[in-house]
From TrEMBL:
Cofactor annotation remark: Binds 1 Fe cation per subunit.
Protein name, as recorded: Pirin
Family the entry assigns: Belongs to the pirin family.
Superkingdom: Bacteria
Record-annotated Pirin N-terminal domain positions: 41-141
Pfam families noted in UniProt: Pirin, Pirin_C
Annotated source species: Streptomyces pristinaespiralis (strain ATCC 25486 / DSM 40338 / CBS 914.69 / JCM 4507 / KCC S-0507 / NBRC 13074 / NRRL 2958 / 5647)
Cofactor needs: Fe cation
Binding sites annotated in the UniProt record for Fe cation: H78, H80, H122, E124
Pirin C-terminal domain location: 193-292
A GO MF term: metal ion binding
Taxon lineage: Bacteria, Bacillati, Actinomycetota, Actinomycetes, Kitasatosporales
Length: 321
């Protein structure tokens, strides 16, 4: 998914200097951002106060939206580099096309994983006809330096492993949870898991003490380590936890995101992750001149133009503002 904000600002993040090395409970509120013709998203990362959770560098939550009489998601071709995109749906479908020639319809609880590597472009749209409701999350994972120049590729996994306990079912979207490993390719130690809690359920989810974590509420009423987390908000948990207490006041769905704190400082501007102003400026020039990022065939419409670079040079700094 693209960042369609025409007033794009640089996000400077990464490095271990601002990692919270002990358990915390920091509630993050979303920023509302329009996406395409009829979709609005709630942006949780990058946030005013916190920029990354492990290698997770971008989190949008959208819906549930009634798009029965709307075009739904319509995101024209746009570029990415230095990251992986994770498409995750609870309702609806998204048609993915990219410059490698990949074409796939992603449905609820299926993993759409695009690794941009050095350069890729893609589009996303609600199929015609499409389901009445659209509800999901779009996430980015920063690629470490050793892998950010790899060849771009796309993976679509329709079956994913689950971890279960009384009142709890956890689908492992990416990485590993309690010994269950997603088939999606990762390049840094991390986890993404979709948690479904039954009304009245109380559970303790095993965690890695060296990881930092956050939990995004997708729907329902749940308490995470005693903190009520409403749909569309995210609770940052820091590091140092071996388990996470969960309680549901109603049927609820959560996204658990975590990983080893990302070692490198990065610059994130529009739909690119790099390490310097010069790298971002080169990517912008290549995109605007039709170089390097390839062509998305089959989408009915022009590609997105890139926003102008800021007047001052982009510099990588820390994980928090």
């Amino acid at each position: 998914m693209s960042n369609l904000d025409r007033q794009a600002t640089p996000s400077v993040c990464g490095g271990r200097g601002f990692v919270v090395a002990e358990p915390v409970r920091e509630l993050l509120s979303p920023r509302r951002v329009p996406l395409g013709e009829s979709t609005e998203v709630r942006r949780l990362l990058p946030n005013l106060g916190r920029r990354m959770v492990g290698a997770w560098a971008f989190v949008d939550h959208y819906g549930p939206d009634d798009i029965a009489d709307e075009p739904g998601m319509q995101v024209p071709p746009h570029p990415h580099m230095g990251l992986q995109t994770v498409s995750w749906l609870h309702e609806g479908e998204v048609l993915h096309r990219d410059s490698t020639g990949a074409l796939a319809t992603i449905r609820p609880r299926e993993l759409g994983l695009m690794t941009s590597g050095r350069a890729i472009s893609h589009s996303e749209e609600s199929p015609r006809p499409h389901a009445r409701f659209l509800h999901g999350a779009q996430l980015w994972v920063a690629l470490p330096g050793a892998h950010r120049g790899i060849e771009p590729h796309f993976q679509h996994h329709t079956e994913l492993p689950e971890v279960t306990a009384p009142g709890l079912s956890a689908t492992v979207v990416l990485g590993t949870l309690d010994g269950a490993a997603s088939p999606g390719t990762t390049y840094t130690p991390l986890v993404g898991a979709d948690l479904t809690l039954a009304r009245g359920a109380e559970a303790r989810l095993p965690l890695e003490a060296d990881f930092e974590y956050a939990v995004l509420s997708m729907s329902g009423e749940a308490h995470v380590d005693g903190v009520p987390v409403l749909p569309g908000s995210m609770l940052y948990l820091g590091c140092g936890r071996s388990e996470l207490p969960l309680r549901a006041d109603s049927d609820a769905s959560l996204l658990l995101l975590g990983g080893e704190p990302f070692e490198e400082e990065i610059v994130m501007f529009w739909n690119w992750i790099g390490r310097s102003h010069e790298e971002i400026a080169e990517a912008r020039e290549d995109w605007m001149n039709g170089n390097r990022f390839g062509e998305v065939k089959g989408y009915d419409g022009p590609p997105l133009p890139a926003p102008a670079l800021p007047a001052t040079a982009l510099k990588p700094r820390g994980r928090v503002r």
